[in-house]
Amino acid sequence: MMDTSAPYINLHTHHTPQATEDCRVIVSHSLLEHSSFSEHPHIYYSLGLHPWDKETLTEASLTELEQILQTTPRIIALGEAGLDRVCTTDYSLQLRFFERQIELSETLRLPLIIHLVKAQDELLRLHKLYHPTCPWVIHGFRGKAPVATQLLEKGIYLSFGRHFHPESLTLALEQKRAFLETDDLPNLSIQEVYTHACQALSLEELTLRTELYQQAQQLFKVS
Ligand SMILES: [Zn+2]
Hints:
- Strands 1-2-3-4-5-6-7-8 form an eight-stranded parallel β-sheet.
- The protein is of the alpha/beta class.
- It folds into two domains: 21-131, Alpha-Beta Barrel (TIM Barrel), CATH 3.20.20; 140-223, no CATH class.
- 39% of the residues lie in helices and 21% in strands.
- Helix 1 runs parallel beside helix 2 and helix 4 packs parallel to helix 5 (166-174).
- The protein contains seven helices and eight strands, in the order E-E-E-H-E-H-E-H-E-H-E-H-E-H-H.
- Helix 1 (59-71) links the parallel strand 3 (43-48) and strand 4 (75-84).
- Zinc ion (ZN) binds at residues 12, 14, 28, 80, 183-184.
């Protein structure tokens, strides 16, 4: 059924939006920011240990993360967490704390928002190893269709920003496992990302909004 008021969903941003009338937003924070969490009903949060923030890849930070996740209802996902073979953080350290966060996501029943750079094989290996029951979402996905297919086959969700391969987005939408996001671009609105996706795929915007909103309601505690 078509919902004429289906809001936009911004799956991943680092900026708290000014206007949220017609959107739901998941703002991603890191422990370094020591940010407060708004009680605004349209703003939700994710919190995790990012592979770029090597000073947070410690047992003490993990304990702090767990404590905040357990006591902050506005946080509806763990992340971003992940693996980045291009950044300067020691890779084995990244891997250790990504695995710990996979375990935490399962224990706390929070979906995992994943930062992934040139570590797709490792991610697939970990997915096989852990058999997660909580959803995994790779954010900022720019891979081509064969890569998208490999991930979608495992039940992994993909979130797309301003730049993407249209074929990959089509595949993810067919599987009902696509989201859209603005990430760290301060001047990009989620409306523009939806418009661009609709143009690239010749979709009705209301259809896309309705579908992604329904998915968000199912996947996250977004209302
Ligand atoms: Zn990000």
